[in-house]
Here is the input.
Amino acid sequence: MADLVVGFDLDLTLIDTAVGFQDVLRALGAELGVEFPLEEMTSRLGPPLDVLLAPYLSAEQIPAAGDRFRALYPDYAITSVPVLPGAHEAIAAVRRHGGRVLVVTGKFPDNARLHLDHTGLDVDVLEGWVWGVGKADVLRREGASVYVGDHVHDVEGALAAGVTSVSVLTGGCTADELRAAGTHVVLDGLEAFPAWLDGHLSSGGATAP
Here is the structure.
């Protein structure tokens, strides 16, 4: 049997980035003379930054604004961002079963790495700047059998890879939305993941796609 490999999304799955993201948007908006609707823009984090900025900036402004956002990010959104409850324990549960842990995220890789280093989240592989079905290539390449996320686009990536989709309700998507997208499992948060994983594996849950 292949070794267990579990992938996790980052924003609003492992870490609570909403406040930090708002602080970066506030600083960016001050530079650009734009008042971004912070709560609205961070209520359902997941899509790429360009998609989030598109309603508020012209197409010509977005590339430079995105670059500036990523440059501002380390000063505004690392030390203030905590892990979500159960994140360390979820990773430890994978380790107890001899598994490997991936983080597959739409976030800029350098900033994602800063989060992992600051929070001490112990992962084997970090893959950034991948979103939706684009996550499937990474999950297949690494031999994952489970992908954990908070957004319907995380579900899309898991299903495209042919792996078990586990969804947590710590992001902006509801249980109904996640089930409609096709997720296999809905958990309130990562605190419930270790027991789910134990049961999944003991009942013969696949460890490879």
Q: What stands out?
A: The mean pLDDT is 94. The chain has two domains: 5-16+82-202, 18-76. Residues 18-32 form the longest helix (15 residues). The two ends are 11 Å apart (CA to CA).
